[in-house]
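Q: A reviewer asked whether we had any structural model of the full assembly, not just the individual parts. We don't, so I'm hoping you can provide one. Inputs are below.
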Amino acid sequence: MAFLNPSSPTSEKLEKQFVEFRHHLEESGNLRERIQAVATEIDSVTRIIYASLLLVHQSLSVSEVIEKAKAQIEVLKEHYSRLSEIVRECPGQYYRYHGDWKSETQTVVSLLAFMHWLETGTLVLHSEVEEKLGLIPTEFGLDVDDYLVGICFMSNELPRYVVNQVTAGDYDCPRKVLKFLTDLHAAFRMLNLRNDFLRKKFDGMKYDLRKVEEVFYDVKIRGLAANGDSVGEKQAQGQS
Amino acid sequence: MKDMMGSNPRGPLKPPMMGDNGGGGLSKLPMMGDNGCGGLSRLPMMGDNGGGGPWKPPMIGDNGDGVIGATWEGAMKKARTMSTETETESSSMKDAFSKYADYLNNINDKRERVVKASRDITMNSKKVIFQVHRMSKQNKEEVLDKAVKDLAAVNDQYLSRLVKELQGTDFWKLRRAYSPGVQEYVEAATLCNFCKTGTLLTLDEINATLLPLSDPSVEPLQINILDYILGLADLTGELMRLAIGRISEGELDFAQKICSFVREIYRNLTLIAPEMDDSSDMKQKMEVMLQSVMKIESACFSVHVRGSEYIPLLGSADTSYPLLGMPDLE
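A: Here is a predicted structure for the entire assembly that you could use as a starting point for your response.
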């Protein structure tokens, strides 16, 4: 009946294992805390970027808005390099901690994509985001799902942009945005999605598309797209 | 853009999958059509392009991220060299998305296969556990030997399949897909081992049995601490059943042994539970575990208190001795 004695060899072996477990879990807990600290910082940077990007709705010139936001990208880069350094301490466990920076990264992608679109009118690609953030795919890459979710977030911003641009007198804007969003939506339809978060976000994209179509319709049916007359009361419908 | 459609042989093969894609919902939105926008007519065409895209990488990219990362680089260069004309613009978007589609298809297929493998492991591990419960005083050796043999079969047939599926991938990415199976396997393996030797099968010991299953050239699948601990938490439930069974057969000695073993596990896990990655799940298991411990203890208590009435019924003389020894144990 040696096994009943708490100091028996069996019990010792058992306890030794659990002590090891505790060390391991404490270590991973510390790592997680450090990751979360960086993620919080990333989050506050994204807020700054978002706040400065919001000025495009107030008809500030794009280049002016972008300049301000771009300055923050360097800060983001620093945070991501710190993050990848931390994650490098536990090789092969990227996805163990992935949840801790996931939503922040999705926001980052959406902001970068929006900026990129404002500048070039094109969609930023996955590898381009990695490049902008200084990520090395073999060490600390950007999760594809995060990228795609971020792109969906960006599409949510476009209806508001179109509405405000039209109000400010840019009647060609709806056509451009509609073209872009239509292509984007079509591209997303190439994906076989699971019933997950991304799928839900993608399902929401069609409402952005509809909204932009409505604005485009309002502008076009009144002949605004061709001549740049300012007809204030008409645009009100575009916003409703 | 039409050229691309024509040159894509996989397009027509995939319509049902596209339907699943949520894209189908669009055509049901009347307001989209009412607007008469040029863009819309393109949607169904694009949709026909199937989920697969023009090319397909090897079914299982060894490391999904690495492989795809390499191919995307190519896509990006392509995108850059293209003119900014809108037509090529949208097709470069499509090129990129066909890569994402491939990536998602691969990882989703893989996840499905891992889930299946995990389910098979669960099912067969459960069978091992039931086999252990079939033991009685007379046929203990025989029953346990069969259980051990069945467990080895789970190892060879099902766990090896999981190991092969996961080879070279980030184990943590698909953890949710295989975790239930692994936990059940840990439960079965530790239960068998306890009945055979009276000791706890450690994680290192389990992982050592997994090594031969995988290709030596790649990083082998090792059960992670979390799944092992979650498996142990479930083990106590099985041990509770086992203890009650033993008591009803009069094997009080064995029941007592189980009792102290389970207590020991519970005690050690209380220290660890709050440190776990998903501690809410573990918290719940701790409560269940405590209930199991208490059930065993109260069963032992009843036998202890009413022992004098109980034993003559079983008619075995030697079972009374452990009872006499019990006060020392507590």
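A: Points you may want to mention in the reply: Residues 228-240 of chain A have pLDDT under 50 and may be disordered. Chain A touches chain B through 65 residues (CB under 8 Å).
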